Amino acid sequence: MAKVLAALRNHWKKSTFGACLLGWGGHWLYGKHCDNLVRRAACQEAQAFGNQLIPATMPLKKATVFLNPAACKGKAGNLFEKNAAPILHLSGLDVTVVKTDYEGQAKKLLELMESTDLIIIAGGDGTVQEFHANANLLSLCVQAAFSKIPIGFIPLGKTCTLSHTLYPESTSQVQHITNATLAILKGETIPLDVLQIKGEKEQPVFAVSGLRWGSYRDAGVKVSKYWYLGPLKTKAAHFFSTFKEWPQKHQAALMYVGPTERPPEEPEEKPSRPPLYVRLYRRLRSYWSSPKEFPQEVAPEDWEELKLSTIELSIATQNRQLDLTRTEDFMDICIEAESVSKGQFVHRGSQKMRDPHMCPEGSQHIQASRCILQLPEGTEGSFGIDNEEYEAMPVEVKLLPRKLRFFCDPRMREQMMQAPVQ
């Protein structure tokens, strides 16, 4: 024992390094053990769904998984196979995995969606930008024929705006993925809004989060170029962005229409159709008893116009802070003041990397159901639409309220059903 202590004292540098390495290795192994326990518990819960008896004439539910294996720096495929795929197969679903990693898939994907009962998006960072890749799957889902198909979202990245709305926070990535997959099996859904963004000549693009245009977005795109600065890369990207013409102004004209009243939600199950004689009786009674009413003229939309000069403009849905009890449908338009110091720009830029559509104090906040953004001729730069880059151009943005239904954790749905305290 004395020799061991003497050796440790004489080689204290090596001993310290070995102790640190041993401690890190033990922590890593413990984390792997905890992840395996989470996977086992999730699989046992999924197996309970798979063991449920169904009538012999009822076909298995078909689930189509859209997976981009190139997401998360190539780790998405492995994360899905280890954490989500076993749960889906044990649940008794007929699972079809489609890898969206090549062009020209629209026809094949359309055929799959016609025969599927639910859609599952296994994506990386962001929300559903995987839908914009290659075949624009989100535009297919927005179509009337597919808008009733529930959509499940399995977050395979570290930061996902949509996953924070659908699922509670988790202690580890494995637990976050398994909780999201189990939420799909539990069947609770919530309606999410969609933005339809259309240029003058382009096909419409659909977004679940929103649109950003301005200096913070432009600086955020360049963060990855400063990877060698480690945790300082975000501040560095925004700091070097201030070397341009300052203050950075983005000028445009905005026309918008205010919020619209939310109609009552239609029941999921329609009542059975009455017999023919009942329908004939009702039609004859309504024809002879009630006077003919002339159709009322539709009131013209009340457009408001605004000239703006801002450091950044964002148009976002209410999906980040969803309230199922609200009586109006609208999107949030945030016009940030251009009078920002360079220090505030760097600090606020770091905050916007975590919450891209945050609207800081001092900004002009507008609620609208539809808007038209007119840009001056020769305007350069790009839009960020659900973290995908598009050329900046005049666009019309229209809110499609409660257009898609996403699976969510029952606890999150319960919170959204509670009216906010006044």
TrEMBL record:
<dbReference type="GO" id="GO:0005524">
    <property type="term" value="F:ATP binding"/>
</dbReference>
<keyword id="KW-0496">Mitochondrion</keyword>
<dbReference type="InterPro" id="IPR017438">
    <property type="entry name" value="ATP-NAD_kinase_N"/>
</dbReference>
<comment type="similarity">
    <text>Belongs to the AGK family.</text>
</comment>
<keyword id="KW-0443">Lipid metabolism</keyword>
<keyword id="KW-0067">ATP-binding</keyword>
<keyword id="KW-0472">Membrane</keyword>
<dbReference type="GO" id="GO:0004143">
    <property type="term" value="F:ATP-dependent diacylglycerol kinase activity"/>
</dbReference>
<dbReference type="GO" id="GO:0046513">
    <property type="term" value="P:ceramide biosynthetic process"/>
</dbReference>
<keyword id="KW-0547">Nucleotide-binding</keyword>
<dbReference type="InterPro" id="IPR045579">
    <property type="entry name" value="AGK_C"/>
</dbReference>
<dbReference type="GO" id="GO:0047620">
    <property type="term" value="F:acylglycerol kinase activity"/>
</dbReference>
<comment type="pathway">
    <text>Lipid metabolism; glycerolipid metabolism.</text>
</comment>
<dbReference type="GO" id="GO:0001729">
    <property type="term" value="F:ceramide kinase activity"/>
</dbReference>
<feature type="domain" description="DAGKc">
    <location>
        <begin position="58"/>
        <end position="201"/>
    </location>
</feature>
<keyword id="KW-0418">Kinase</keyword>
<protein>
    <recommendedName>
        <fullName>Acylglycerol kinase, mitochondrial</fullName>
        <ecNumber>2.7.1.107</ecNumber>
        <ecNumber>2.7.1.138</ecNumber>
        <ecNumber>2.7.1.94</ecNumber>
    </recommendedName>
</protein>
<dbReference type="GO" id="GO:0046512">
    <property type="term" value="P:sphingosine biosynthetic process"/>
</dbReference>
<dbReference type="InterPro" id="IPR050187">
    <property type="entry name" value="Lipid_Phosphate_FormReg"/>
</dbReference>
<dbReference type="InterPro" id="IPR001206">
    <property type="entry name" value="Diacylglycerol_kinase_cat_dom"/>
</dbReference>
<dbReference type="GO" id="GO:0005743">
    <property type="term" value="C:mitochondrial inner membrane"/>
</dbReference>
<keyword id="KW-0808">Transferase</keyword>
<dbReference type="Pfam" id="PF00781">
    <property type="entry name" value="DAGK_cat"/>
</dbReference>
<dbReference type="Pfam" id="PF19712">
    <property type="entry name" value="AGK_C"/>
</dbReference>
<keyword id="KW-0999">Mitochondrion inner membrane</keyword>
<dbReference type="InterPro" id="IPR016064">
    <property type="entry name" value="NAD/diacylglycerol_kinase_sf"/>
</dbReference>
<dbReference type="GO" id="GO:0005758">
    <property type="term" value="C:mitochondrial intermembrane space"/>
</dbReference>
<dbReference type="GO" id="GO:0046486">
    <property type="term" value="P:glycerolipid metabolic process"/>
</dbReference>
